[in-house]
TrEMBL record:
GO terms for molecular function: alanine racemase activity. InterPro entries: Ala_racemase, Ala_racemase/Decarboxylase_C, Ala_racemase_C, Ala_racemase_N, Ala_racemase_pyridoxalP-BS, PLP-binding_barrel. The gene is alr. Pathway: Cell wall biogenesis; peptidoglycan biosynthesis; Amino-acid biosynthesis; D-alanine biosynthesis; D-alanine from L-alanine: step 1/1. The modification N6-(pyridoxal phosphate)lysine is found at residue 35. Substrate binds at residues 130, 308. Keywords: Isomerase, Pyridoxal phosphate. It comes from Lysobacter zhanggongensis. HAMAP family: Ala_racemase. This is Alanine racemase.
Length: 363
């Protein structure tokens, strides 16, 4: 029998979430961010489902190649830009725009064949301190970029928020985002070109930052982008259901211990379910005993260590469970955020970590 571990992708949920993002930012165009294989949902599948997006954002040129090969005709932005001169020709051939965040990229462009036309988005570091020109160097970078004959069209202007998941709902909240918005405005004042500031959290919580383009990732997959909230709290639908089946049910005696390192002890004689999923599939090993799963749609806790191929489940609350019954690790009825919280991470990391042996199914 094939391993029953599946990631079911709800393409209707992806479309629903794009409509939600549009509804929240009605004056903006939407760049669908599909880096990391569409946050683990499958790049081509996501692009096909989100064919209504105005542009796509990727982190790897190879992903842009895959999108073009799949027939995507919208603009594509390489979010961290090119990193060697040979990329420029490839990007030109693929009509892929580049973020320009560093002087090394300006030098490469100045030395490139002027026939190599490329669209550019100038990235300004307004306080995230990851990528981008410092505000005091941004206008000079803009002038240099404008003078390069190979730069096609108007230069667009980009900012990335560090903590837009803190909404502007109290004076103590959102200070950094307000500051980043102010620095961006001051830096780009008077420059031509479209502006883009907002990630998913800013789409949901910072309407003043919507500008010409929003760049949404997590929200499109129905994930929460705000701590303590789920995607559903914002009207989003989780697009992924991670599921498997029970392959054994064993009756274990009180005082016996379950799994590697014997971390969990049975408090009474009880049924222990074994499901075909483990960290080799992308279920987090850090998930502790007590992390919820759904067996036949009913909550049952993980017990013992997550191993490579298997997990063990306390079935006392699901006495009717039988071998072959479905087990859901996360999905619309069990938010990935809940599992992420238990495992000390975020939903994004979990969906990005699903491994190649998992079968992807579309619904
Ligand atoms: C990943 C990324 C986004 C999307 O972020 P979400 O929080 O998933 O919406 C937007 N802009 C840039 C530059 C990114 O790297």
């Amino acid at each position: 029998m094939a391993r029953p571990t599946t990631a079911v992708i709800d393409t209707g949920a992806l479309r629903h979430n794009l409509a939600q993002v549009r509804g929240r930012a009605p004056g903006s165009r939407v760049m669908a961010v599909v880096k990391a294989d569409g946050y683990g949902h499958g790049l081509e599948r996501v692009a096909r489902s989100l064919a209504g997006a105005d542009a796509f954002g990727v982190a790897a040129l190879s992903d842009a190649e895959r999108l073009r090969a799949a027939g995507v005709s919208q603009p594509i932005l390489l979010l961290s830009g090119f990193d060697e001169p040979s990329d420029i020709g490839r990007m030109r051939a693929l009509h892929v725009d580049s973020a320009i965040h560093h002087a090394s990229q300006l030098e490469m462009l100045e030395q490139a064949d002027p026939g190599e036309l490329i669209g550019c988005w100038l990235k300004i570091d307004t306080g995230m301190h990851r990528l981008g020109f410092a505000p005091e160097h941004a206008r000079e970078a803009h002038a240099r970029l404008s003078a390069i004959p190979g730069v096609v069209g108007e230069i667009r202007l980009l900012n990335h928020f560090a903590s837009s998941d803190e909404f502007d709902d109290s004076p103590s909240h959102g200070r950094q985002t307000r500051e980043q918005m102010r620095i961006f405005q001051d830096t780009v004042a008077g420059l031509p070109g479209e502006r883009s500031l907002a990630n998913s959290a800013a789409v949901l919580g910072w309407p003043d930052a919507h500008a010409d383009w929003v760049r949404a990732g997590g929200a499109l997959y129905g994930m929460s982008v705000v701590e303590g909230r789920t995607g559903a709290d914002f009207g989003l639908q989780p697009a992924m259901t991670f599921a498997t089946r029970l392959i054994a049910i064993n009756h274990i005696r009180k005082g016996e211990r379950v799994g590697y390192s014997a971390t969990w002890e049975c408090p009474e004689d009880m049924p222990i379910g074994v499901a075909a999923i483990g960290y080799g599939d992308g279920y987090p090993r850090a998930a502790p005993s007590g992390t919820p799963m759904l067996v036949n749609g009913r909550r049952a806790p993980l017990v013992g260590r997550v191993s490579m191929d298997l997990v063990t489940i306390d079935l006392r609350g699901v006495p009717e469970a039988r071998v072959g019954d479905p087990v859901t690790l996360w999905g619309p009825e069990l938010p990935v955020e809940t599992i992420a919280l238990a495992a000390g991470t975020i939903g994004y990391e979990l969906t990005c970590s699903i491994t190649r042996r998992v079968r992807f199914v579309e619904r």
